[in-house]
Each structure stands twice: as C-alpha cells, then as structure tokens.
Write a structure and sequence with these properties.
Blueprint lengths: L15 E14 L3 E8 L2 E8 L10 H14 L6 E10 L8 E12 L13 H6 L1 H4 L3 H23 L3 E2 L5 E2 L11 E4 L3 E5 L4 H9 L4 E9 L12 E10 L4 H31 L12 E3 H10 L13 H15 L3 E5 L21 E6 L2 E8 L4 H10 L8 H4 L9 E7 H8 L21
Helix pairs in contact: 4-6, 7-8
Length: 447
C-alpha cells in the first residue's frame, strides 16, 4: 500500500499513484461517473470513478472489479471513513484545490449509519449532542488549529522570557474565598474537597517559593448556574504571575505584549483561512492598549445614553459593550483596560493604592466583553488578614493561603484569562460553546 498522503500535500506532489484516508463528505452518483468528496484533518479532495453499471457476457476479472467498485461507491454514506488509492491528476478546472484522484481501490475502515443525526441547519444544542460529528466541519477544525497556535505562541512568549510553567492542583482542601461558586465533593471518607475555580493562590505560592515568573494553561471549575453565551462550569484558564513589580501596570504591559504576539501568530498562520471561513480579518492590536479608569468609563457609558443598573459601581455586559464601542470609535482599538476598581468589588488579596484607596487592578475588555482580571497582589500578611476580615471571610479557613506570606514574599501580580472567551471574540463567534471542544454547563455533562 502507498504511504498515506494528507490532502493539503496533494497540490505539491507530481501526478501519480497516491493513497489518501478520511471520511466521506458527499457522494454524487451519476450514471456515467461518480464523484466522492473525501475530507481529512487538513482539507477536502475530489475522488472520481468512471461508473460501471453492468457486465458484458464476456466480462473479465477487471470488469467485475470495476462493477464492484461502482456499487461500493453507490452505497457509501456520509461520514464513512475509508482509504482510497488512485491516480493523482492536476487539473485547474477542478474547483476543489485544482487536483483530483481517479480511484483504483477503495477500502472502508468504518461505515457510517446512513441517517446522520444533525444537519447544517441544526440548532446549537442538537449539534452539541452530536459534537463529534459537528466538529468534522472545516470551520470547526480551524477553530482548534487557531487555539493550538494561540496557546503555542503564548507559551513561546513566556518561555523565551524565562517563565516557569506550573501545574497547580485542582483539588483543594478549603475554599479560596467562599463556597458560592465551588464544586464540593467527598474525598476519602469524611474529608471534603473543592474543585479549584482558579490557580490564583497556588501561583502566588510560586512567588513565595522564589520562582519569579510563572504561567499555567489548565482547567478551572466554577459552580455558576449561568446560561449566558460566555460562561461555563469547566473552562480553560490562562494564568500568569510575576514577582518584583511596581504596580498592576507591569502586569498589564506583559499581557498586552502577550496578546499582540499571540494574535500576530494566528494572523500569520491562519489569517487567509479565517477570512475565507469566518468572513473576518484578524486584526493585530497595536501597543499600548487604551486605559480608562472605571469612574471615567461609567461617565462615557452614561454619555452614550445607557444607565448601568448595577448598584456596586461595576460595568454590566451592556456597559462593557458601550465602552468598547467608544474605544473603537475613538482609538480604533479592540482592547481596553478598565482600571481603578473600588475594594468593595475586588477580592481581598488585591493591593490598594494608599493615595486613592482604589485597588491596583484592571479588567481587560476585548470587543465588548471582559476577558481578564489582573492586579498587583497584597503581599503583607497583616494587611491580607485585615482585608479578609473586612470582607467577612474566616481568616482561620485561609490559613493554608496566609502561610505563604509569613516567611517573605516579593511584590507580585498577575492575571487570569479565559481561553474560550478569547477565541470566541477573536473569531467573531456568538457563544463559547462554538469554540469549546466539549462544553460543560449547568445542564450539560455529555458527551
């Protein structure tokens, strides 16, 4: 058997015998000729077979084989996985890549049931029920190639700058702040464990360990009964933490460089495909990103005729969209850092500016949606204890965390960012379900 060739390699090969493997996308079974569109993980190719519909009385073995091949092709169902060996021909008239393969032999690896459970117009929930079939689309395949490039570019950025990659535990003995959004489970008898909603405390521990600069790309869990297009109960979190900072501005500068690098890598590798399949041009952000204090952001939103209903002083989703629209109109930028948050709407471990009383923190909005919270952390244990008490937290329940700070920790800060939200906004999708391999939400645990 010839060595398997990927579809995207065919155009560079000379005419001759090749072997391709993939699944059947469509079959056109005409009287005199049969066409099969075969798709693999890299693209689609047209297969062709001159049809043999009946045998003459003096038919030889070759004629019988031709009839059998025709009948096999006629019976093919969409989704069948197979291997074809045939003659590669270059023909500019062939719209699909300018090549086609004349079938010599066809071997079925696994036949598909003829009735496909989803169609192109199926609803999102139905497609999620049959996600493994839904993912066979070229568009969906590209989403995860883009995701791979994004993650690789971010890892490369960090590794080239001597960051250490960590893998923090996802089982915790005590809740980080409160039990409100934590999954709780039995752990060996009478013990209780919690699924981590963030590596926050552990990446801070790495600062106490003297690691200096760390990052992690890993699962996180949040028991949030939300059904919005941007929330999930299990998601991939992109986190970084760095020592010896002067303020949250050092964290923001690192993150904007990281995002510029990652999006530029996506544009270089996938820009043309994204434009073809998603109908949008990848825009690499310029540096620096705009920065707007929260109080000013609220004034801007109000000037656009929208009154934010939240009582805590933060932006709501529509406020985020209005502010991002203003930034796009004013600065022609897709990103904006919102800074200077009041301590009441920030975690106890965010450092506070002694002059303004505001936290040294930011939210990062991308095309109207928040994707990140970043901050300088409070590293003085006595201040942490006071701020935790002020928030109504049980300091005794935070002992494992507070112990990190009893033996010296450098000034540090970092951010957490949802991978799916970033992908969703980069590709102009309407829901993180579309860009998550297998989505988990309040009503979805399968497949």
């Amino acid at each position: 058997m010839s060595e398997r060739v990927l579809v995207n390699q065919l155009k560079q090969l000379p005419a001759g015998t090749v072997s391709v493997s993939g699944w059947v996308e469509t079959v056109r079974d005409q009287k005199k000729v049969q066409f099969v569109i075969l798709r693999d993980e890299t693209g689609a190719v047209q297969l062709v077979n001159p049809a043999t519909r009946e045998l003459p009385e003096d038919a030889d073995d070759a004629a019988a084989a031709a009839l059998a091949l025709t009948e096999t092709i006629s019976a093919l169902s969409t989704g069948t996985f197979l291997t074809v060996t045939g003659e590669l021909k270059h023909d500019e008239r062939v719209k699909l890549g300018g090549v086609e393969i004349k079938i010599h032999t066809l071997e079925i690896a696994a036949a598909s049931d003829p009735e496909t459970p989803i169609a192109a117009d199926s609803g999102l929930d139905k497609r999620m029920d049959w996600r493994f079939i839904d993912l066979r689309q070229a568009r969906n395949n590209l989403i995860f190639r883009v995701q791979t490039t994004l993650e690789h570019a971010m890892r490369s950025y960090w590794i080239e700058r001597d960051y250490i990659e960590i893998h923090s535990p996802k089982l915790m003995s005590s809740p980080a702040e409160s039990r409100a959004e934590l999954f709780q489970l039995e752990y060996f008898g009478d013990q209780t464990a919690y699924l981590a909603q963030s590596p926050q405390h552990f990446k801070q521990m790495a600062q106490a360990a003297g690691f200096g600069k760390v990052f992690e790309i890993a699962d996180a869990f949040r028991a949030d009964p939300s059904f919005t297009s941007r929330h999930a109960t299990e998601f991939t979190s992109i986190d970084a933490e760095i020592s010896w900072i002067d303020s949250h501005e050092d964290v923001a500068r690192m993150q904007e460089e990281l995002l510029q690098t990652a999006i530029a890598a996506v544009k270089e590798k996938h820009g043309a495909e994204i434009e073809e399949l998603f109908g949008l041009e990848v825009t690499v952000p310029t540096l620096p990103f705009p920065r707007i204090p929260l109080a000013e952001a609220r004034s801007i939103v109000a000037s656009r005729g929208y009154e934010i209903p939240r009582a805590d002083g933060d932006l709501d989703p529509e406020g985020e969209r209005q502010l991002s629209a203003y930034v796009k109109e004013t600065y022609d930028h897709d990103f904006v850092f919102v800074t200077d948050y009041h301590p009441e709407i920030r975690p106890f471990y965010h450092m506070r500016d002694p002059e303004t009383g505001m936290t040294k923190s930011y939210d990062l909005l991308y095309r109207g949606t928040e994707i990140t919270t970043g901050a300088q952390r409070e590293h003085r244990v006595e201040v942490l204890e006071a701020q935790a008490t002020e928030k109504g937290l049980d300091v005794a329940g935070l002992e494992h965390y507070l112990d990190f700070f009893r033996y010296g920790v450098p000034p540090h800060g970092g951010f957490g960012m949802g991978l799916a939200r970033l992908l969703m906004l980069l590709l102009g999708e309407s829901s993180i379900r579309e860009v998550t391999f297998l989505f988990r939400g309040p009503t979805r645990l399968a497949p």
